[in-house]
Amino acid sequence: MCGIVGYIGTDNAAIILERFLKSLEYRGYDSAGIAVYDNIKGQLNIKKTIGTINNLSEEITKNLKGSLGISHTRWATHGKITKENAHPQTSSNNKITIVHNGIVENYLDLKAKMIAKGYTFTSETDSEVIANLIDSHLDKNDINEALKIVLSEITGSSTIVGISSEDPNSIFVLKKGNSGGLVISENEKGEKIISSDPSIISDFASSYRYLVDSEIAILSSNTTNFVQEASKPESRLINITANTMINDDSVYQFKMEEEIFSQKKALERLISKKDSLIFKKLDNSKIEFKKVERILIIGMGSSFHAGLLGSSYFEAVSSIKSETINASEFIETKKVIGPEDLVIGVTQSGETAETIKGLEFAKIKEAQTIAVVEKDTSQASIISDTTINISSGPEFAVASTKTFTSSVVSLLLMSIKIAEKRNIVIKNLKELLENIGMLPSKVGSILSDISSIKSLSRKLHNQEHILYLGRGLLYPIALEGALKMKEVCYIHAEAYTAGEMKHGVNALIGDDMPSIVLAPKGSTHAKMLSTVNEITAREGRVIGLVSEKDLEITPLLSEHLTIESYHPLVDPILFVLPLQLISLYCSLRLKINPDRPRNLAKTVTVE
Ligand code: AGP
């Protein structure tokens, strides 16, 4: 989603901004722009492009001179992907230039007021409204006051970084709401970087300070003045530690591939350090577990699917009522939420707007909150009572893989600790822990023999539609498999609980609709056998993921993969691996870049 970078220093700003914007590319964008102040000519030069930052390379080297600038990667929300809608956006008199991440929810009202005052608009964006709005207050106020007024006038969540022509040697920054991060950082040479993503500045400085709701600051080469500052600013100063979980010597062509194959290592790390990463973290947290009567999990996409498994773990292991709700529906469902609820936001990025909104809502209702994230300093972490780090290392491919499995395992481990905290005796705990302990090696063995998965992909990549069917804990895995297929192959894939088939979905069965059934041995096996029989009786083609030596279902299948089964709570994690790989290899056959699927962004900071 949109990315922001600003620079004040002594070097060529455009070249530095280009470098940092490139590190933001993984978040997804469709247009980009840079504004650099040329203090010799006394003018602000703006260059924009649709497509990638590479299109600006020539302009950057030839036409953008100066050592202060702001830049942006845009993922279209308001208005098409055009140069006019790309950022920076300027006020109609060119006095205010801004880049913006977020949504101004009342932009139509504000735009009408601006038009009535004589302002003109050249883009369809809500962001251009901000530039004009700031300018409209400058006749009676200085920039500090103007920014304060604008912060109170706009609704929704926004981070804004801009330059005023009255003080072009400074950059102003403001933050409204909690969605979308913004950090400022200074290195020992005195250069300053402003960024929407702290992970990109690890080579630049040793620390950064993040902004919270309603903060406004003005930065120049010598000073950083907070016009509005929330209390305890020292707590928002973060030391950057080198990320040892980034693999610089990757042998893989694509990040998604690298991330799928890194799951053994990621889970090894999480499980071997579970005492410090999960158990002690919950022990030392301020959450009052005895007070909790219900655990509500919220998340989007893969994190929502991980949450669905999490709820089953909290019910089965911790004997506590639990439900997972799609974060975008959490507030709409008008649930009665109170201090006896624990709301867990699962979000690898920690920046997903809907999940942040849900956590904020939970806080208003006085529920206790935990963020399950990959990034400790993310917005979700900042606003939650406690953070659990899934410790998978950063994920760059748009399609989540390792963060999904690490989130699921984190939730399973949390369910064990929460049971203990509530004095619940877990039946067969030793066996459960042993199976969790064996998980990395089982993951390793699935990932080490992928020939049959590749050959299945050969048969599936030309399909237009695929059904994914699961029951019980395998249903969230079916959802996750279908999501991967949609995301990186653009194949219409739908997941259903197998029980739904007779209630309508069977009408879809035909030549062009194969079904992938997830049918491990155990309590759901007999019913899954019936489902498979019912599909094949209607001439449907069924591909199965089955446990070893399944002599009942296997003969009915056109193709099958075997996953050794060990434990009903742990096995679903194994079943997702072939589904991730099938999507990856179908994607490569279809000549789609799996890391950058069309229309999608890695980090979704707007609702
Ligand atoms: C998963 O493959 C997707 N890229 C997407 O659904 C993602 O899981 C969702 O946007 C939530 O992201 P988060 O975990 O960063 O909150």
Provide an overview of this structure:
The protein is α/β, with parallel strands linked by helices and 607 residues long. It has three domains: 3-239, Aminohydrolase, N-terminal nucleophile (Ntn) domain (Glutamine Phosphoribosylpyrophosphate, subunit 1, domain 1); 255-447, Rossmann fold (3-Layer(aba) Sandwich); 451-589, Glucose-6-phosphate isomerase like protein, domain 1 (Rossmann fold), CATH 3.40.50. It contains 18 helices and 24 strands. An eight-stranded antiparallel β-sheet has the order 3-2-4-1-10-9-11-14, with helices on one face. A six-stranded antiparallel β-sheet has the order 5-6-7-8-12-13. α11 (353-364) links the parallel β17 (341-346) and β18 (368-373). α9 (301-316) packs parallel to α13 (402-421). It starts with a strand and ends in an 18-residue tail after the last helix. The mean pLDDT is 95. Bound molecules: 2-deoxy-2-amino glucitol-6-phosphate. Residues 300-303, 347-349, 352, 355, 398-400, 483, 487, 604 line the site of 2-deoxy-2-amino glucitol-6-phosphate. 2-deoxy-2-amino glucitol-6-phosphate is lined by residues 300-303, 347-349, 352, 355, 398-400, 483, 487, 604.
